[in-house]
Design brief:
Length: 122
């Protein structure tokens, strides 16, 4: 496991923002991911789409961070969606039932399209 995780924000038209996550989400990196994502939400990116295509590994601490980010988005009147979720992470989300809590899409474009069709509650 590493101590490095990258979160790169991509500006998009409309209220949604895409944050690309690269690295491993584990006990060491999950707190930083959660903190950075919550900072983005606090800066007005209330509808956050996490592109997880660059995530090679995620443990239970990472799962907890994702749920914490979802809570933060909800508290800000926003939402959290995931895009391009790797197979191993998707299996963990399904086994824990978190897949029914966090919307997930095959691609970032699909997530943006779904969000643009939804009413903005923020």
């Amino acid at each position: 496991m590493t101590d490095d995780i990258e979160l790169t924000l991509t500006a998009t038209p409309g209220p949604a923002a895409v944050a690309t996550v690269t690295g491993e989400i584990d006990l060491h990196t999950a707190p930083g991911l959660r903190m950075r994502a919550l900072e983005l939400i606090g800066q007005g990116h209330h509808h956050l789409i996490l592109d997880l295509s660059g995530v090679g590994y995620c443990d239970s601490a990472g799962l907890s961070a994702l749920i914490g980010i979802w809570h933060g988005a909800q508290e800000a009147g926003g939402s959290l969606a995931m895009a391009a979720v790797p197979g191993r992470l998707m299996r963990m989300l399904t086994l824990t039932g978190v897949d029914s809590l966090l919307p997930h899409y095959p691609t970032t474009a699909d997530a943006l399209s779904a969000h643009q069709g939804a009413p903005d509650v923020a």
